[in-house]
Design brief:
The complex is a heterotrimer of chains A (about 280), B (about 250) and C (about 300). Chain A is mainly alpha-helical and about 280 residues long. Chain A is built from twelve helices and no strands. Chain C has helices spanning about 1-45, 45-50, 65-95, 100-115, 120-135, 150-175, 180-185, 190-220, 225-230, 245-255, 265-290; strands spanning about 55, 60-65. Classes of the chains: A mainly alpha (about 280), B alpha/beta (about 250), C mainly alpha (about 300).
């Protein structure tokens, strides 16, 4: 009897914990929405700040939205250019379970675990080393470093479980490793899209990386060497302003960022569902 | 052991995987344009032996291969042998069909395309020819642009055979190619094998003795990484010389 | 034709190899870069005096990290104490009890939670957790707290690391063979007893790895904690005192005080310390997890 009671007690506790996590999510979304919805006007998304982002009462955060999109797209594209070859190398070109493949996987797990503030500090060092100023370019390079391990891990997970026989089928027709790679890429398209979305979500929300490297301005950058505003920093800086209108811009920015991230998450879910359907 | 002209000659082949001695001193001549089946209990090394023929085995790390495998007199494991052209000579039919992620037409055309065939009319011809060759043409001719995964598993396996034949191999390797199929599809594949042996050398791994009896000319019995007996189907199945072979085929005879 | 194909194969192979090696070397580059930048301060003062002194007076060239290290440890400890039991119970429920249909409903919120950017957690912390700590908790224990406190940082951080711990634990429980569970159940153990004596026992190294990964994640989290923890460089005496963790120190001061001698180097040393600890923790726990999953001998 005591045995049953103990089990019932812990089971109840477990269910409470599980539900409370969903509860916290709902609470966060509710707080962000209720605070941000009132300030989310057309001006916010269509105008750059008027009279300085920290003190000016008018205008919006278009500069931050555009800046974030630039950096995120740039970093994801650069990231893909590096991570796809890496994933192909460890899954197609290198021998199965080779030393290099295992080391690469371990390293990208470790790089994935490094906090973005470390990437930010490192990005700042290379920026100084190459004589760059805080700019769209420096921000993009730093965020690229941040997303490479995310992309490698996510894509590797998909490529690794593709049945060996698909590769063997191509080899047995006299295909080369590069030809096999092309077939595998085709097979893994939904997985690659999921990885891209994952990296997109992480890149657009990260503040510590761009804090030292992208700078912050009121205008929309027109070239790579100009500094740029970003959404996370728009929230961070404007929230600390004493002026209520500016704070409200921060809440609106928080809501916009949350919506973007949620849309990305749901799209990624859709594609990963597709992925499991396509599995042979 | 046979008077036939060998197509594949294995000489003193030893394979270690992760330090385990999987194939021990294998020497065998696989005759040209005949069906040769490898039989033996699971884990005896028959699939490993098959995979040494198209060098898919050494894609895995920690595999050590010594000895020679000669195809038409060329050593597969000599350093200047070009692997992709070797593999082109050998079609592979795996345990389960693995259609490539593309439509039916492109699956068959794939090999011809990577080997340089771009002419649309030629490709049409090739696709039709080989789909007819595996008796699939009539079933799929109206839906060549459908994804290959829409076919039944038996049809997929025949498609994979057509895909392999379309690069004009000389040898067909079958790794228990009917083990995922229903009896009717199995029969289809077996009939194809009998038809194909006029033109191709076939090597099959199978654990179904009746299938070995139905389709093969020669049988190799492998046990614990060693060849115990090699001879014609009649000899090995009905009149085995070795005790181990006798014990293994007893179930079949009785 | 054949030659072109083989050449392409070779070129792609070699260039992909170079990229793979480069991406692997990045981790070394980051370490070396940060170390190189923190050399000036390391040559100026001894490591022990930097780590064990709490005096932070940049203009007098005294850089004692103790208050920041203490802040980091406090916040992390609070976060783990809150997050671990909740994650463990949730992961056990989802892996051992929950029906597939229930899982389908309960897993997505955890995923979504892990995708929310740190700065959003920060905003939520400022709006909800800080007032909660100030008005509902602190008044029972201390005379005054602004709410911007070690505890607020710990709570926000706990919520951020819960999804991480749960996802690793689910993977770990997944590696326990069903045969073991069945063996225990078949001798008459209840499901809870099976979990306690078989599943958890078998998963112990994995649970440890999950905790170590969570700790290293907590060490490095910057913006969200920075927004709620008060940022006063003193060793906190209670959880209602403000604190100032290392990442917050870097984030708040970088690029602003570069004219002060040694300041940049000191901040780089902070980043280097974070790097070393997190690198070690990650390596250890990943190796444990690789072994559990049978991906490494």
């Amino acid at each position: 009897m005591k045995r049953k009671l103990e089990e019932q007690f812990f089971k109840l506790l477990m269910i409470l914990c599980t539900l409370s996590i969903s509860g916290v999510l709902i609470m966060i979304l509710w707080t962000i929405t209720s605070k941000g919805a009132g300030s989310l006007t057309w001006d916010i998304v269509s105008k750059i700040p008027e009279g300085g982002f920290y003190i000016g009462k008018g205008g919006g955060i278009l500069n931050a939205i555009i800046g974030s999109i630039y950096i995120t797209i740039g970093a994801t594209v650069f990231g893909l250019l590096i991570s796809i070859p890496v994933v192909l190398y460890i899954n197609v070109y290198a021998k199965k379970n080779s030393w290099l493949a295992t080391t690469t996987r371990l390293t990208s797990d470790i790089l994935f675990g490094l906090p973005s503030i470390v990437y930010g500090a490192f990005g700042f060092t290379i920026m100084i080393y190459f004589g760059l100023k805080t700019s769209l370019l420096a921000g993009t390079i730093t965020v690229t470093l941040l997303v490479i391990p995310i992309l490698v891990r996510a894509m590797d997970e998909v490529f690794r479980v593709v049945p060996e026989d698909i590769g063997n089928a191509v080899y047995s027709l006299g295909g080369t490793r590069w030809e096999t790679s092309k077939i595998l890429i085709r097979q893994c398209v939904p997985g690659i899209i999921t990885a891209i979305l994952l990296s997109f979500g992480r890149a657009i929300g990260d503040a510590a990386c761009v804090l030292f490297t992208a700078g912050y301005t009121d205008s929309i950058p027109t070239s790579l060497d100009q500094p740029t505003a970003t959404l996370p920093l728009a929230i961070f800086f404007q929230l600390s302003s004493p002026i209520e209108e500016v704070q409200n811009r921060a809440y609106a920015a928080a809501l916009i960022l949350t919506i973007i991230v949620l849309v990305i998450s749901f799209t990624a879910k859709y594609f990963s569902k597709k992925l499991s359907k396509n599995k042979i | 052991m046979t008077t036939e002209k060998p197509h594949i000659s294995v000489k003193n082949l030893n394979v270690h995987i992760d330090g385990n001695h999987i194939l021990k001193n294998i020497s065998i001549d696989i005759p040209d344009k005949k069906v040769t089946s490898f039989i033996g209990p699971s884990g005896c090394g028959k699939t490993t032996l098959l995979k040494t023929f198209n060098r898919l085995l050494d894609r895995n790390g920690n595999v050590e291969i010594t000895g020679q495998v000669l195809v038409d007199g060329v050593d597969l494991y000599s350093p200047d042998t070009e692997v992709t052209s070797i593999r082109k000579k050998m079609g592979l039919l795996s345990q389960r069909p693995f259609p490539l992620p593309m439509n039916i037409y492109d699956n068959v055309a794939y090999g011809a395309r990577i080997h340089g065939q771009r002419d649309k009319k030629e490709l049409d011809k090739i696709v039709e020819h080989y789909l007819r060759g595996v008796s699939l043409w009539d079933e799929v001719k109206d839906r060549l642009k459908d994804p290959a995964t829409r076919l039944s598993i038996g049809q997929q396996q025949r498609l994979c055979l057509a895909r392999g034949l379309a690069v004009e191999p000389e040898i067909i390797l079958g790794d228990e190619p009917t083990s995922a199929l229903d009896p009717i599809s199995t029969q289809h594949i077996e009939e194809l094998f009998l038809k194909l042996k006029d033109k191709y050398t076939l090597v099959l791994v199978t654990h179904i003795l009746r299938q070995a009896r139905r389709v093969s000319d020669y049988i190799v019995f492998i046990y614990m990484g060693e060849i115990i007996e090699f001879g014609t189907t009649e000899e090995v199945l009905l009149n085995p010389k070795e005790k181990l072979t006798k014990d293994y085929v007893k179930g079949y005879i009785s | 034709m054949k030659n072109i194909r083989l050449t392409i194969d070779k070129i792609t192979g070699n260039s992909f190899l170079v990229l793979t090696l480069l991406s692997t070397v990045t981790v070394v580059l980051i370490g070396v870069g940060l170390y190189y930048k923190s050399l000036p301060i390391l040559q100026n003062s001894s490591l022990s005096s930097l780590l064990l002194s709490a005096e932070w007076k940049p203009f007098k060239s005294s850089f004692g990290f103790l208050a920041y290290i203490a802040g980091t440890l406090w916040v992390t400890a609070i976060a783990i104490i809150i997050a671990l039991p909740i994650s463990l119970l949730t992961a056990i429920y989802l892996s051992e009890y929950a029906h597939v249909k229930v899982k389908k409903v309960l897993l997505p919120p955890i995923d979504l939670l892990s995708g929310i950017p740190p700065v959003i957690y920060g905003v939520w912390g400022v709006l909800v957790i800080v007032p909660f700590v100030q008005e509902k908790l602190a008044i029972h224990f201390v005379e005054f707290s602004s709410g911007y406190s070690t505890l607020a940082g710990g709570i926000v951080l706990a919520i951020m690391i819960i999804p991480l711990i749960i996802s690793i634990l689910l993977e770990v429980f997944n590696t326990v063979p069903d045969g073991l569970r069945e063996a225990s159940l078949s001798v008459g153990a209840t499901q809870w007893e099976t979990i306690k004596h078989v599943v958890l026992k078998k998963s112990l190294p994995g649970i440890l790895a999950a905790v170590v990964l969570a700790v290293s994640r907590a060490f490095g989290e910057t913006i969200a904690v920075l927004m709620v923890c008060g940022n006063i460089s003193e060793i906190p005496h209670s959880i209602f005192d403000p604190c100032y963790p290392l990442p917050a120190l870097i984030a708040n001061n970088y690029g602003e005080m570069l004219s002060v001698p040694m300041y940049e180097s000191a901040l780089m040393l902070a980043a280097f310390i974070l790097f070393v600890i997190i690198f070690l923790f990650n390596t250890i726990s990943r190796i444990i997890l690789y072994r559990l999953e049978g991906r490494m001998n």
